[in-house]
Write a structure and sequence with these properties.
318 residues, alpha+beta, 47% helix, DNA-binding
Length: 318
DNA sequence: CATCAGGGCCCTG
DNA sequence: CAGGGCCCTGAT
């Protein structure tokens, strides 16, 4: 266990309107043991330039954000400045929602979602490497199993950090799995995914992918690069484009299980065709996936706040 | 008990 | 470009 005793603080003022809770907590995200959330606060482990950190995000009246960085050693200014930029990027704290809201409010259903989650940003705590690990354990498994795999991996190869009275696990450093055999990974019940996880780790360790420069490429290049990674197919690419590369307009992939969920979500019925669903979502133009994010998160937040959606319970098998 | 079908992807033919 | 196989696990 590593105790993180150094602290650095800074403030971020996001664009308005800002909703801390809906931005820093997504009830449908399944990862465990690497974060704790309570109203107005999120503790999150993370690595920046390979350095394990404890991050504490606090809402200051839903107007600004207080960030406390816990580290094992003193951090220099460049490190902190780039970390701050990265946080702004990952949680989309500079996103201007005006245009999307104007468009979205023309649709009664989405208007309700926007109202409920007013100021919410899309966003994800993970780097591309970390998200790829998550994406791979999502494949061909229901939620409870993905959780089990994530927990097993994190417990075995992650690093235990103690900060601000919280004991949380931090995902391993790129290259860690180099000395781990495929058999050893399989023992954690990740199955055939062991091979993909190892190969992704290897490719990143060799520096074949540079996340920051890939962000600057166009969508097609990003798609091509991602799908070339072993174990990454269309479904995983689609998640990555939204959560890691912030492509709000890409919404062209609906898998059978999502088809059922979106039928309820968009059209309040049991089973709509993929064409029907895509047609519905096309009205949101360059904000297609962002619109879905609002509709989707609305249901999850309502569920968290006590409302019951039978169709959701049936499908998620958490 | 055995068999099967997944919240994909790779590989083969 | 269609379809079999894959780790596991719960459902039947």
């Amino acid at each position: 266990m590593t105790e993180l005793t150094y602290t650095t603080q800074f403030k971020i003022v996001p664009t308005k309107p800002f909703n801390f809770d809906a931005t820093f907590y997504k009830p449908d995200h399944f990862t465990t043991d690497d974060h704790v959330y309570e109203t107005g606060v999120r503790w999150q482990t993370n690595r920046w330039n390979g350095v394990p950190l404890g991050l504490k995000y606090e809402s200051v009246g839903n107007v600004s954000l207080k960030v406390t960085v816990f580290s094992g050693k003193k951090l220099d200014t460049v490190f902190i400045d780039t970390l701050k930029e990265e946080i702004i990027y990952r949680y989309n704290l500079n996103l201007d929602l005006t245009e999307f809201y104007t468009l979205g409010k023309k649709n009664i259903k989405l208007a309700k979602g926007i109202d409920y989650l007013y100021g919410m940003r899309p966003g994800h705590p993970s780097s591309l490497y970390e998200y790829l690990i998550i994406g791979i354990i999502l494949q061909n498994a229901a939620v409870y199993r993905s959780i089990a795999m994530f927990r097993a991996l994190l417990t075995t190869y992650g690093e235990e950090l103690l900060f601000d009275g919280k004991k949380l696990l931090c995902l391993w450093k790129i290259g860690t799995l180099n000395n781990v055999s495929e058999e050893e990974l399989r023992a954690l019940k990740v199955g055939y995914r062991a091979k993909s996880i190892k190969r992704i780790d290897e490719e990143f360790a060799q520096g074949k992918i540079d996340e920051l420069s890939l962000r600057k490429e166009d969508t097609e290049t990003q798609k091509k690069t991602l799908i070339s990674l072993y174990g990454v197919g269309p479904a995983t690419v689609w998640y990555l484009l939204f959560d890691v590369f912030h492509r709000w307009e890409v919404f062209d992939h609906i898998s059978p299980w999502e088809q059922k969920l979106y039928s309820h979500l968009f059209l309040n019925k049991e089973s709509a065709t993929v064409e029907e669903l895509l047609k519905y979502i096309n009205q949101f133009g360059k904000y297609k996936h962002l619109a879905v994010h609002y509709l989707w998160e609305e249901v999850w937040w309502r569920r968290k706040n006590g409302e019951v959606f039978q169709w959701l319970e049936k499908e998620i098998r958490a």
